[in-house]
Design goal:
By secondary structure, the protein is an alpha+beta fold. Helices cover about 35% and strands about 20% of the residues. The chain contains three helices and three strands.
Length: about 80
């Protein structure tokens, strides 16, 4: 398995957009994205802070519903 790089919320949001997710709204420091098929992803955006590895894996596997390899391919 390949290791995930350290990413900010903004970088993860760019990948979500490449996957077809659209920004719906922002609540506080959390950006909410929705896919046409109904999936939703909430991505925290704290200026210049990297997401922790556990949160990044949660966003990839549960919210985006893709594998780590697919995510890395879209970086």
């Amino acid at each position: 398995m390949s290791k995930l790089p350290k990413l900010t919320g903004k970088e993860v949001a760019r990948v979500a957009e490449k996957l077809g997710f659209h920004h719906i709204h922002t609540r506080g420091s959390h950006m909410v994205y929705e896919h046409p098929d109904g999936r939703k992803a909430v991505i925290p955006h704290h200026a210049r802070e990297e997401l922790g590895p556990g949160l990044l894996i949660k966003i990839i596997k549960i919210d985006l519903q893709i594998t780590k390899q697919e995510f890395i391919k879209h970086l």
